[in-house]
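Structure ticket #2291
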Amino acid sequence: AGVGVVGTCLAASSDSGGGVQVLLTDLPTIVKKSLIPNLQHNQRLLQKQQRQQDPSSLTKTTPLEIPSSPPSWLMASPETTTTQSSSSSSQKKKKPQAFDMGHNHWVAATSLDWTKPLHTQLHPCQYQNLDYIIASDCVWLMSMLEGVLTTVQTIFDESTTTTVPKLLLSFQRRDSEMFTTVDRILQELQTVRGWKVTCLAWYPVYDPDDDPNEMSSPPTPASSDHHNPPQNATTPVVKEVFLFQVTPR
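Resolution: structure written out below.
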């Protein structure tokens, strides 16, 4: 989730009449120092905007627009379903903090470490009934890829919905040996995991500070499911951003 831009925008979306509910996750330090403060700030801005538009809006308690409490699944804790040992009981995970985005839209933030089992960190209701998994530039380091995909695999396997959730994965290519590559991601998604991958979007990223001598043209896709960037582009490209939709076959 990082600073929470993508998740907050999704939660604030007004297109869904039933209300959008988003659970943001990151490491504990990021949740405490970045996500929660940003969500608190956004909620204050929303309340200020409501007061400016309609001074009486905060006194209206229409159930559809201002629920009395956040959805229960956003506030669930993993310790309610697992037996904690005495050594870990003193380190119980705090409940997620939820914020009202207006019009029955909610966003909550909680910690999640991709290197640890999902069921020890989240309540089953927080990963068994999802519509989408959004991963915005989460796998840029090679060391992150396995943990992220294992977490996604668990969500796919444990899903109780009629339609398995879709993973929307954005990735920015970077020119460095320590960073993962588009081909590596596609190999892990398609060959190793056996998932279906569709490229929904591709576009170049130009940086005026880049050295023109180090710039390269778009790579040739190694997979038929990999979106083919325009080959007639005359301007060299050093970075690219991809948006993939991933589903189990």
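Closing remark: The two ends are 27 Å apart (CA to CA).
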